[in-house]
Amino acid sequence: MRTKGWQSIFRFTFVQHIKTKSFIIGTIIMCVLVAAVAVLGNILPAVLAGRDEGGNAAVGEVQFSKIYLYDDGEILDSEDITLLAKNMGDVVQSDAPLSDIEKTLCDTEEPMALVRISKADEAVFSVATRYSKAAGSGAADMLNNAVRQLISRRNLVNLGISPEDYPKTLISVTATRVEAGKDELSLVKSAMNYFVPIVVSLVLFLFIYAYGSLVAQSIANEKTGRVTELLLTSVRPLAIVIGKVLAMGLVSFGQFFLLGAVGGISFAISAPFGFMKTAFSGDSAQSLVQISGVSGETENFSEISELASELKGAFSPVNILLIILIFVLGFLFFSLLAALVGASVSRIEDLQQAMQPYALTGVLGMYLAYCPVIFNVSSIDSGEAATNPVQTLSYYLPISSPFALPSAIMLGSLSPLEIALATAVLAAAVVLMAWIVSRVYEAIILHNGNRLKFGDILKLAKRQ
């Protein structure tokens, strides 16, 4: 049998690769980086939202020991000042020079602030806040927002609107544009339509291309080092490529899922301390409501629930199985192509030049899945999901479908029939590539001399 002995090549390649220091150190470094990205991606937004650059306490936890108020516009009355003092700290209306107050802020180790309200005309006010280092920029931003809310409230009261009717003036108006015949997308769905294809196609490209390159390098090293000649005494040439491709496939899948597990576990562990905690906490929003004199509850869960629902649908068991299948097919396609490249060189120095067409093929496939989404920015704010002729083409071309199909499956951009058809085309391309390999590999692995080009390999396949 032409494939007899592939198991030995498989075991040898797998064990030798995972035992190398470069693989072990590289895997550890990638796990640390993935864990760091997962934790920082979860915690950093909450830190930036709740702490200033100096690392001060979270917004809503700071009470100013003293707030110096200069109301040049004479818009706030005693009731507003009392409300501000109740929620933000002691408010002092001082006639001292502003320079003296600012010097006090510079010298103090307590959270203090100077707020100056100016009036340009009847409808234009400005609020300028200077704060001590102990207060922090986050607390200063909250103080600014509180004062702005009070100015708006006082202006409406002066126009004859009672404080009880003030909540009715706080309306929100959104505008969308959707092409007739298409469904309107939510903000979460639109953002996912834009960012998911970009991230997924880039990540899959890095893994599929990188591990395919390792297959070519392994075959080229053994061929140029005369190891192949020794292997050919006991196994057939086709068994070599099958064993190496399957071994590197197992290595790639193992490392891929290990990194995914590390990222998921890191995110889950850090979730209670990150943006999930901040998102479910209504302290900041509720504080502004209280300062403005508005009663009622804030809605902080709608966007999170919508995102959770979208993610649950994207990572359903069926979708995960389909994505794994496409990842396997894509890896096999590019690995078989890389195996031909590695076997076509007679000197290791020629490998880099021989890999250029392989690299260009992978980059072209990735950009076919990547670029159409980037230039379809309208998908963010409308129902015009990221579908266009180039994007559709990327689902059916074997060089791009491994990078484009997973995100389309996650987002529901294709019907089951379209997914089945695109997957079948990719599988057929893998079978065709395997057929080419089976026809020519035995001849090219024994070739010595000038590097064989892909056209030469195809001609050789026709003659076999």
What would you note in describing this structure?
β3 and β4 (124-131) form a beta hairpin. It contains 18 helices and four strands. The chain has a four-stranded mixed sheet, with helices on both faces. The chain has 464 residues and is an alpha/beta fold. The protein has two domains: 6-32 and 185-260 and 309-463, no CATH class; 64-169, no CATH class. The protein has helices spanning 6-19, 21-50, 78-88, 98-107, 137-158, 166-169, 187-224, 227-231, 237-270, 275-280, 283-292, 302-314, 317-343, 351-374, 389-394, 401-411, 416-445, 454-463, and strands at residues 64-71, 89-93, 112-121, 124-131. α1 (6-19) crosses α9 (237-270), α13 packs antiparallel against α16 (401-411) and α17 (416-445) packs across α18 (454-463).
Question: What oligomeric state do these chains adopt?
Answer: single chain
Order of strands, main sheet, comes to 2-1-3-4
Report the portion of residues in β strands.
5-15%
Overall geometry: elongated
Number of strands: 4
Query: Which sequence of SSEs, written as H and E, runs from N to C?
Result: HHEHEHEEHHHHHHHHHHHHHH
User: Helix content range of the residues, please?
Assistant: 55-70%
Structural class: alpha/beta
- Average pLDDT works out at 75
